[in-house]
Amino acid sequence: MTHTIAVIRGDGIGPEISDASLRVLDALDAGLNYDFVDAGMTALEKHGELLPAATMAAIGKHRVALKGPLTTPVGEGFTSINVELRKRFDLYANLRPAITFPNTKARYDNIDLITVRENTEGAYGSEGQTLSPDGQQAQSLIRVSRRGSERIVRYAYDMARRLGRKKVTIVHKANIMKTTSGLFLSVARDIAKDYPEITSNEMIVDNCCMQLVMRPEQFDVIVTTNLFGDIISDLCAGLVGGLGLAPGANIGTDAAIFEAVHGSAPDIAGKGIANPCALLLGAGQMLEHIGMPDKATRLRQAIRDTMAARDRVTPDLGGTGSTSTFADAIIERVKNSP
Q1: Phi and psi dihedrals of 154, rounded to 5?
Q2: Would you identify the CATH topology of the domain 107-239?
Q3: Catalytic: 271?
Q4: Mean pLDDT of 315-326
Q5: pTM of the model
Q6: 67 annotated active-site
Q7: What is the DSSP letter of 242?
């Protein structure tokens, strides 16, 4: 059985890590076909727009996309291409796993948690931004809906049940933001009752950040609103060695986009030293999404074994290898795995 996915190779280091990732996916014999489309600066240069209609149509048709990092040009177009994609396809659930891998700059060796972030509303949406004529006062609207809260919290609990996770932490600021964060917390409390086999607890966001630094092993699944999730997930990435190991899944009812959450790193573009792991781990999330969990497990194990051996890894991981040699080492292990 074959499955066609849209592939956005991206800007900066995007093409390098995308090509490496596709080689690894091919070695997994996942039966994937690729429909290459453009977005970001590459699209602007080739087609005169940041998100061409053909790209949007391909994502809508295939319902799954693997996306390299994009550059949003300053002073024109969308505030963020990634945010625009989430809005266009209503990709309401953002999944950011943080897992400890060997031979990294990880602060801990026992982290395995997932941040489930509402992806379409809240303070991060920056709706209704205004600046007073005298430049002395700025404001922005925070919009949280019952529907948005319900679907992200239920997604988190359903995912926890499916993956055998034992605990969900509901993160909020309802002690101060009594309407917006209060609505989210109230909805989450109601939904938690439908999952008695899962331990639920609540944590104010500032305490959550402190607890993540002090004792991250207490967390399993975190569910929270958009801006808090953005901050917490980067904090978690720092605990396990940085954004070079941070994948992200953006999932909606009709489409899903999988990515590396780091930027396009133009300063090292073309040097062949970019670490492809974040996008590869995003590809692992994609494999699970399309019903290939065994191949996702093989991929993650091959990455882990390669990093443990420091076999041809990139300089950020203490090696002297390249993007391409790192992929070669992972491919060898993928092919030799059961």
Answers
A1: -65, -35
A2: Isopropylmalate Dehydrogenase (3.40.718)
A3: no
A4: 97
A5: 0.95
A6: no
A7: -
